[in-house]
Amino acid sequence: MIKNRKELARFHDNRLILSALEVALDSVKPETLVKQAVKLDGRLSVRDIYGNVARFQKFDDVYVVGAGKAAAGMADALCSTLKDRIIAGAINIPVGTKIKSKAIAVTEASHPVPGRSGLEGTKKIIDVLGKAGQGDLVFVLISGGGSAMMPMPALGISLQDKQRVTSQLLRSGASIHEINSVRKHLSAVKGGQLLRHVSRSCSVVSLILSDVIDDDIAVIASGPTCPDNSTFKDAQKILKKYQVDSGPVTRHIGRGARGEIEETPKQRDPIFSNVRNAVIGNNVVACKSAVNYLKLRGFRAVHIGSQFDGEARDFGRFLARLSSDLGNAPFAIVAGGETTVRLNRSRNGIGGRNQEAVLACAMKLRRQDVAVACIGTDGIDGNSDAAGALVSPMIAGLARKMDVQKYLDRHDSYHALKKMHSLILTGHTGTNVNDIAIILGAKKG
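RESULT FIELD:
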């Protein structure tokens, strides 16, 4: 999966940390996760990662819709399992993604800012949902990126309005929870509202790959099939917090805060009576796979959690401090989560949260027996073509000789790490379960 593995191994002499990253990515392939979760053996069953099982004795036709970075792989796996039981489907996927299935209409949609093609694809999704009736079963495939890839602006809001607000919030360093709270209240499908387009007489099952901390299904892809706890008033506070003022959007959110527009569906809404939401993969799955791999190779390996957030550079410094506090090798620390980068108002370079974390770590890393890697599991880090980066003893000294702070100040980690032969390139992985960081001590391989 790591395209430039040979170059990295030559300059960093640490193949095991690269292999651990690949094992983690392999464990959360959507095809694997769907086949583990969905079984058709006389009757249909769907199992989530917590062990909960939903069983369906009888159903007529099956319809498939969805959006996100993993939607193509999820759809292929579902079609392989259910075969000709699927009558129709429509999904929105990232530009350039490949899909084998011919039974499902595919639209390539933009991310992270919603585009016109995504809007057209969402119309196809709504059309498919309108065909499902009593006794039918609808699968909704949800994964990271689905919020941007499945846009359907609320009445009075244009796609351009949503694009401007999304861009402003991204640049302001707003969290994904905050961005999605706003998105839900500018949408006709997010925050449980996708269910307003399907008959309550049929059953709905959402297969969800989590790309958010704590696996809050109301946040993943803006929760199109689950209750929304956020309100118009919450969205209004977020716009004020980040000083976002965008004409029609501000007025629309204001009207909603005054009770003039219907709220998103809440917990007790009967719209959810025939809906099952199943999380079938998350960051913990990926992290634990890496831990198990490293344990088998003689490391004292531990997963310290998948809840890390905050500023990327602060996380990088934390990783450097953590490595300094550890005892004798061989040891391995695996962590997950998703940090943020607060961009300058102007003159920003190229890079992303994982590269910025690694560069900040390189400045502080003092041990000569430690390597640190951070990647985004979707293969995309910020505005670059890298998934993340690696720092090791072989180049840590070079980092201290460079004016690394200059690159950090202008958020140009990509070019600094490129000089250090530290970029990790995977291309689009077809999945997305947040970010993974690995600290590996002493043992080479």
